[in-house]
Amino acid sequence: MVDHVRDVRIEGLRGMDPRTVPLPHGTQVTTTVERVPGPAPAAKDEGPRPIPAGSVGTVIELRPDGRLRVRIVGRGEHVYAREELRPAKAGQLRFAVARARDEAALRPCAVLEATVGSRAWGLSHEGSDHDVRGVFVLPFGWREGLGTPPMVLSSADGSSTWWEVERAIRQALRADPNTLEMLFVPGVRVLDPLGQALLEARTCFVSQQIYGAFGRYALAQAKRLRQSLRLAEHRARVLEWLAAEPGLTLDAVADRLAAEATVEGEPRTDRGRAREYLKQLYRSLYDQGLLPANSFAGLAELAGRVRCGDGSGSGFELELPRELRPKNAYNLLRIVSGAVQWLRTGVPLIEVEGELRQRLLAIKSGQVPLRTALSWTEEVAARLDEAREGSPLPEHPDYVAADALLRRVRQEAARRWLAREPGPLGRDAPPPPAPELQTEPETETEPEP
Description:
Elements: E1 28-31, E2 56-62, E3 68-72, E4 76-80, E5 85-87, H1 90-106, E6 110-116, H2 118-121, E7 131-136, E8 152-154, E9 160-164, H3 165-173, H4 177-184, E10 189-190, H5 193-200, H6 210-244, H7 250-260, H8 271-287, H9 296-303, H10 326-345, H11 354-364, H12 370-381, H13 384-389, H14 399-419
Parallel strand pairs: 7-9
Antiparallel strand pairs: 1-2, 1-5, 2-3, 3-4, 6-7, 6-10, 8-9
Helix pairs in contact: 3-14, 6-9, 6-10, 6-12, 7-8, 10-11, 10-12
């Protein structure tokens, strides 16, 4: 077999082995070795089906021992050594290198950071993630020249994110939930006087825009989750039918789906919509690498290898789509509850208590069906309009104050740079990366007549 690992070369990164560059959380990767999963057999007379080299997955965890946990399409989560993986696309190699370079260079330029997520909400347990969000300021030298400076820094494991101050301010003006949470959680860590200035001005970002950015957003996402749940249920039905009757045609399955797959609050699905759904289903599964062919026949072949709801079938069990994890419904209920309280009282909801806390913990632990969790979110969302009508919050954020804040930060960063003051924004600032050569394909133009 030809080793394609050494063939990945990018202008500006020549000679770099893709097996040694960092692979941040979320990177799409390709395996370079065959792996035999755990002891659970795929069928009575078979051992576990090997995961072949060349399988595509996504990095979801960087382990302390240096190995990586990867979610392999259609095969679940498995642990690989770093040298057993390579970036799936050449562009990701450049991204991984730039991401690590920028995080190492600009991390000292952070001016503010906070612990967010379940540890801030009072919903953490011993194994909860330690999520950090913060703000950094670009040194003056990074804002000049031809290079495009990074606006976001991320740790390799995805647990920590820092936004450049201008981006953070613009997000806060839009009432972005993650940004406002970072600014209002107790125990915000001020790392520089510029961070203190940002913290003191945080109320200028708060307005009734929370109604849309928090509340209406959460409601729209809940509706999407309901649709995804229906589609997942339809998928299970279709695969069970095909596993039991491999000879069913596309039209036969569409007719059965139209007759049995009802949609809440909508007319019964007709054959045309059912056919379109089936086509979307096998295209999606093909794109995930689960089907041998982008066709209904490929879907039928997969059905024979999937473990069905009744225990039949000889192969692996399809995972639910990631968006249907309890964590997503848990976040929606928290966000919409925070919107109602902030609009109604003018006080942000960070650490949750009482019945809301019990509900969130029940969702998080998987004790509550997704439909119930979504119903709770919709129940709270029904109070949004009432909360906005009498809200003590201003209708719009204070753009004048936000603009003055950004100018103040920029001018102070420039002053430190030009005065060569000690510190990461002055004399000790990291040198900006050299601009990369941008090449464009030559184009032929016709001479003017």
